[in-house]
Design a protein that fits this description.
Elements: E1 4-8, H1 13-25, E2 28-35, H2 42-57, E3 65-72, H3 76-79, H4 105-120, E4 124-126, H5 142-156, E5 161-163, H6 171-193, E6 205-206, E7 209-210, H7 216-233
Parallel strand pairs: 1-2, 1-4, 2-3, 4-5
Antiparallel strand pairs: 6-7
Helix pairs in contact: 1-6, 2-6, 4-5, 6-7
The protein binds zinc ion.
Length: 234
């Protein structure tokens, strides 16, 4: 049986690249997004634009791209007190973790995604988590997600594979992956239509995309794009 995938798609650079990765591999690909009162909710507006443009501009992928699911996880705001959901400065707490950390967020995301996938007959869950230049979130770690794969598969009594194609890539390699999958057209789509900025700045278009240029997410995205671009030009 051909495997079908559900991509955790936020509208950011990483998950958009993962979506292209999945469309390249699986006959049917659906997407799921989460609303949880995040300050960068503008990311969610990018989702529809990216999905529409993928359908319109990548004819080989269009027939594979199926339903989009949107889940309201507003309860995350009740169990976290962080810079992403409240108007607080992004800083590093005594624990060493940035205050952008919503405890256990990816555990919840994957568990809800698995419930959707189960209902839809999908058996692969794809997420853009990465251990390479991440912020130290323990729920982004490869071992966390491998353990979660086992727990979900047992808990549903259905094999559910968790795929994280960006796990060992840095941001420059993530741009490279987009280029390999969809050429310059995909790089340009991701550059201009996805959103990464923690502060939700979607008015300033920089060489590397929209964002404030100051927050840690913008900083990472800018650096990665510059390294990718320099390598392309060489
Ligand atoms: Zn920013």
């Amino acid at each position: 049986m051909e495997r079908k995938a559900l991509v955790l798609f936020s509208g950011g650079q990483d998950s958009a690249t993962c979506l292209a990765w999945a469309l390249d591999r699986y006959v049917q690909v659906e997407t799921v997004g989460f609303h949880y009162g995040q300050r960068h909710a503008v990311e969610l507006d990018c989702r529809k634009v990216v999905l529409d443009r993928l359908k319109a501009e990548f004819p080989a992928w269009a027939p594979r791209l199926g339903a989009d699911h949107m889940l309201d996880l507003a309860l995350l705001g009740q169990v976290s007190d962080t810079a992403l959901t409240q108007d607080r400065e992004i800083q590093f707490a005594a624990s060493g973790l940035p205050t952008t950390f919503v405890p256990g967020r990816n555990l919840l995301f994957f568990t809800f995604a698995a419930a959707v996938a189960y209902r839809r007959g999908l058996s692969v869950l794809v997420g853009g988590m990465c251990e390479t230049d991440y912020s130290g979130y323990p729920d982004c770690r490869d071992n966390t997600l491998k353990a979660l794969q086992v727990a979900i598969s047992l808990g549903l009594d259905a094999p559910m594979v968790v795929e994280t194609p960006l796990m060992w890539l840095d941001k420059a390699h993530t741009w490279r992956m987009a280029k390999d999958l969809g050429g310059a057209a995909l790089v340009e789509l991701i550059r201009t239509e996805t959103h990464t900025c923690y502060l939700g700045d979607h008015t300033t278009l920089n060489a590397w995309g929209y964002g404030c240029g100051q927050c840690p997410a913008c900083e990472l995205r800018r650096k990665g794009y510059e390294i990718f671009n320099a390598a392309e030009a060489a």
